[in-house]
Amino acid sequence: MFTIFELPQAPVMVAGLFCGLKKPESLEEYLHPMVNELNCLMQRGININGFQVAIKLRAIVADTPARAFIKVKNIPTGDKLHLVDLGVHKRFVIGCRDGTIRKIRWTKQQCDEISTAIEKIKLPTEIHRKIRPIKQAHFWKASESASFLHYAGFVVLKSYLTDREYKHYLLLFGAVTLFSSSIYRGKWEYAGTLINKYVEEFGSIYGERYITSNVHNLQHLQEEVEQFGPLHSFSSYCFENKLQHLKKLLRCGWKQLQQAVNRLMEYEEYKQVKPSISTYPSLSKRGSIVSLYLREGFLLQNNAKNCWYMTKENTIYQFQTAIKDGNLRIHGRKLIGLRLAFDEPYDSSILN
């Protein structure tokens, strides 16, 4: 599967399928056709509607077993889905719950309190998967772990970790947050110091035996973000989603390859193009709910999930309504009495 870096709106596309009773044992058999075709494309380019387009391989995104199997350059180790969300962070949450990483595990009452706090969180519409209770953390999808890290953990866990553990957790939270957007590009070097400190202190807080390869690989994040861009730009999230779609195409276990190819061809022929908003900002109203689409992936509504926004002056408002009469006027209620969420091991305002 592949994506086109210059066309982020383009879907993940299937370049080829390998079918067998088990994973391929021969690297030559598995990758030779792809390597030949890719070399040809990079040498000659491709003609699309009379335009000659150059082809360049940017990166190969793969999890740890796949990286060990193919052993080539330009494979970032900082795949956020496997390294952070399903790796270091999810393992930490489960370890705290079960007492496998901390000396004292969370009690049933503490787990219930954390779960209640999670239940009260109103995640914005752009986040489609709700975070399940902490007792089900071992079933969390990568997106649930990511949502907990980005939006819940730094608030919810403060009362359930020691001061040293909490400050250590904030190092991971801050570094991953800064590495997740090109808006913070000027702070990526500082994020690198945070993640290095997280790795350096991990053994003294939780024990050397808990320093896994994933913890070590966190130290490569800054280098790879500098080379490839923010974490999401070389994440396997989009490929995992496509893979789930491919699996659902199969109706039975007979002639699986033929089924997948036929379904993909049918999809390409009959797929329906979803209507999209062609111009932004777009304003609509249904009942008492006012919806303002400022840009793709940015929705404001006068409800609990999508009402909060921050201005360039770092002022936070609660969205009330908007008027579009040639100009766009947004009306909101200013949040007063602001204070830092935390000031150690760094000032939380650095994430604004």
Brief description of this entry?
With 352 residues, the chain is α+β, with helices and mostly antiparallel strands. The chain has helices at 27-44, 64-70, 80-98, 108-120, 142-156, 163-179, 188-206, 213-217, 221-228, 237-248, 256-270; strands spanning 46-48, 51-53, 282-286, 289-295, 298-301, 308-310, 316-324, 328-334. The strands form three sheets. The chain has a three-stranded antiparallel beta sheet, with no helix packed on it. Strands 6-7-8 form a three-stranded antiparallel beta sheet, with no helix packed on it. It has a two-stranded antiparallel ribbon with strand order 1-2.
Plain-language structure description:
With 352 residues, the protein is an alpha+beta fold. The protein has eleven helices and eight strands. It folds into three domains: 4-57 and 235-270, no CATH class; 80-233, no CATH class; 282-334, no CATH class. Strands 3-4-5 form a three-stranded antiparallel sheet, with no helix packed on it. The longest helix has 19 residues, at 80-98. It starts with 26 loop residues before the first helix and ends in an 18-residue tail after the last strand. The model has no long low-confidence stretch (mean pLDDT 90).
